[in-house]
Amino acid sequence: xxxxxxxxxxxxxxxxxxxxxxxxxxxxxxxxxxxxxxxxxxxxxxxxxxxxxxxxxxxxxxxxxxxxxxxxxxxxxxxxxxxxxxxxxxxxxxxxxxxxxxxxxxxxxxxxxxxxxxxxxxxxxxxxxxxxxxxxxxxxxxxxxxxxxxxxxxxxxxxxxxxxxxxxxxxxxxxxxxxxxxxxxxxxxxxxxxxxxxxxxxxxxxxxxxxxxxxxxxxxxxxxxxxxxxxxxxxxxxxxxxxxxxxxxxxxxxxxxxxxxxxxxxxxxxxxxxxxxxxxxxxxxxxxxxxxxxxxxxxxxxxxxxxxxxxxxxxxxxxxxxxxxxxxxxxxxxxxxxxxxxxxxxxxxxxxxxxxxxxxxxxxxxxxxxxxxxxxxxxxxxxxxxxxxxxxxxxxxxxxxxxxxxxxxxxxxxxxxxxxxxxxxxxxxxxxxxxxxxxxxxxxxxxxxxxxxxxxxxxxxxxxxxxxxxxxxxxxxxxx
Length: 480
What we know:
Blueprint: H1 2-29, H2 33-44, H3 53-73, H4 77-80, H5 84-109, H6 114-124, H7 129-136, H8 143-155, H9 157-173, H10 178-209, H11 217-235, H12 240-252, H13 259-283, H14 287-291, H15 294-316, H16 324-332, H17 338-350, H18 355-383, E1 408-414, E2 436-442, E3 445-447, E4 460-466, H19 470-479
Antiparallel strand pairs: 1-4, 2-3, 2-4
């Protein structure tokens, strides 16, 4: 038994090391790292037999909670606010249109019943937050487009889950109350949004007010609150994933203690969940079964990329202030990833006829989407003129640590262009007692703070301040 456990642990360690290294090669080759993670899982399928759809679904949902939470933490509300309407339209109307079109094609290509074809369409109808965040995270793509895609992928899961569960119910019972379905959808979306905001306020209050013995516990607390948000919201049959994303955006855009530690921890943990989730989903697929559905999978993948998704985007954004080229880019950047594969486990667990065929084709479509669309997003954005200059690496690195068990902490404050304090000397700032500006980052240099030091736009200040005076100090520095 010890030998078996040792082998499993060794395999786990090797997989993580290989996965981390492949992310470096994937960026150089222009391929999304999730392609390599899935490929590793499929390769291991020859040596490890795994067919537990329930376990894959459970782990997939937990991974999506972490990934959505990490993505929401780093999402700026000022960017998302400007694209709320188009993102919401893509997440609802766009998903429905895509579902109907690809469901029509799937019915004939896979020789399924109508409801089974529409079930397939619902499963692949939404874009995937894990794939979008992973592929666009390090790309300097126009803020408007990036925010639209990320907001869409973070909010279209409720519609996809709703349609998937509804079609499964129709297949199994052939009787449905359409009014009940519509009310159920609005309940899921509305309550998920409201409870997500409520939990966001609770999370900010707890993180800022509680005095833990170690700063390392704050990231754990934040993640625990994200999981608690999903579970409590799902308990009342609302959209837990939407609630987690909304809660994360609220937390990430609030004045938060130990912000850097929380974001860095969840970024690393999010990557690990990315890796393990896609490897596990790759294990669930038997490569020899993909050969028999290769042409059907390729046909549906092409129809999804070139027909269903573009029509869904153009119809749902018909009256939006987006140019033709921007809509083309949004159409092509609608990556499929973990969410469709996780949704494909629903009919497997429910025992729907042809569920294994549906799962295999969904996997083929996702892998094809990640491979071709993921690899060409950057070249297409550059071709259409949607990329800016390459983001320079951060010229500074300052680890923010807990100041023992005191009530003091170091906060980071950036002086924006046009701020009232630009040009002022530090001695002119009437800062609270026991507040000290410890360092100023200016360009590639660290400036030693002195009373006669004048502040400039773009300066990054590291300020030692008590928790009670944190907001006051920030207000004085930012507003003069």
